[in-house]
Predict the structure.
Amino acid sequence: MSKKPFKKPSFSGGPKALLIGIIIMFALLFALTQLTDYAKTLHEFTYKEFLDQVKSGHVQSIVVNGQQVDGVLKNNQRFQATVVQRDTDFDLFEKYGVDYSVATQGVTSNFWYLILLLSVLLVLGMLSAWYINRQGKGNGGQGGGLFNMGKSRAKIFMPNSIKEKFASVAGAHEAKEELMDIVDFLKNPGKYRKIGAQIPRGVLLQGQPGTGKTLLARAVAGEAGCPFISVSGSDFVEVFVGVGASRVRDLFAQAKRNAPCIVFIDEIDAVGRQRSGGGNGGSDEREQTLNQLLTEMDGFEVNEEPIIVMAATNRADVLDKALLRPGRFDRVVTVPVPDLISRQEILQVHLKKVKIASDIDVQKLARATTGYTGADLSNFINTAAILATKAGLDKITMTQFNEARDASSMGKLAKTIVMSDLEKRITAYHEGGHTLINILMGDLTHPLHKVTITPRTGGSLGVTCMLPSGEQYLQTKEEYLADIRVSMGGRAAEMLVCNVMTAGAGSDFKGATNIAYRMVAYMGMNDVLGKAVYDDAYLSTETKTKIDEQVALILESEYQNAYKMLEDNRDKLDIIANLLLDKEVVEASEIYEALGMQQPETITLI
Ligand code: ADP
Ligand code: ZN
């Protein structure tokens, strides 16, 4: 569920709003110039001149407002003047037949300015109302609009619509065990209160996206038979200060009406990040929101119907420590990426929903999907089901599972991209470089699965696919370095054979840099930086520079190692590249055969 990236709110009124804004600006400017022109042609009489005009019978009509006079001469010329001695002046008007009236309200020549100002304000007001309205609606959910800004965007699920039970969550045994307590508490709060036990308030579920955090939270509500109120942390992040906090207040008001219930806040890191204590102004709103959340959680009355707040994140490390204090999210449940047994169980749950051939080996599928989350597994089965449908089958066979796995590890084919012969040659050597280093590094790397030089959507022109041979919980420094060297193999081969650098190596370097950075900054695998763990948030410029230097050294040294290895085994590199140019898609077994080498054991599906 947490695939949606954190969206930074912005004034994305769109081109339409911009256009309207520009039109208003121009209208305003135009009106102003018109008015100044008008003001210029308007004649200003001195008191004496004015009386002279009256006396010579040139004045058609006037409006007197206080001491201010707006008038029109008989030749239609407009003018302004002032009256000084009202009584005698009025007698004069009477005497010379001036059509005069006295304004009771502030109708002056400024009248038009006023009208203009008001209408501009009105239009601006309407425009911003329209904008805010749009914002409200754009963020989805009910209750958008100007007057609903502060309402929470929560979705409420009543017990009868929650089908999930603990049985729907495969694997995750430890997480489920911890959550059983919560279910029991929601069902029998009295039992706990009688004995004076500390009541749970918040549970933080931490784990990668797709590991089943939302599923678990719903299952808790399902088991307890209570409503499930779901909201995303990013729903609280707004441009307008105070809106987030008011949404939090509204959320908890809703929760109190529905208690006992579960409040589920997905992506809590969007609001729950470490408070900066100053810094940029944009964080003010978020801090207010977070403070409000803390206040609400502290404010639960012991004897009220229980509300359990469950929150999910994949970045528990960035959360404000205040969130984890007793009485708040004091229980942290880790939801891991499933291991072999759990994957088998998850696959079984999802395979029940599709038709499969009798020879489907679930254990084999589980072994071949190391690193897949629950969501990945569900997606994997769905992809296979679609492939089977397209192939006109009525059951999924191992062939579709094999294709589905390749599709997920290598990406989709981009059929519209046609490479030139030179591009093909460079790509064949680039992938050949990765492949050969992988083969030469032996057990230090994941076994080779397949190599292709068929372009993929997303821009890669080739893929060297390696798949883990099984569960691995610990990786050694040598293995990390080998991974980096394999990544460097692409560029090294390009340079060795074609003497060119291509952009294709960019993503290789990104992966390699990432590994090297973790080795240096987090895993104590570098002599210069030592065994300390360096927290990104508190890095001095000096330390940062040191880390970057060491990272660059590792990368450069592995690049040189890769280059040397390829140079020394140029004959093998040529064999692989030619095989690729010839067939475009090559299985690991074919490569080992062409090289006359023994292939290590891999997990194949067919
Ligand atoms: P998260 O909230 O951690 O991102 P979700 O709970 O949204 O993950 O999981 C997405 C989908 O993946 C679920 O709806 C379910 O189909 C599947 N899934 C994830 N974990 C499991 C699991 N342990 N058992 C069964 N299905 C799972
Ligand atoms: Zn590459």
Remarks:
- The mean pLDDT is 84.
- The two ends are 32 Å apart (CA to CA).
- Residues 340-410 form a domain with the Helicase, Ruva Protein; domain 3 fold (CATH 1.10.8.60).
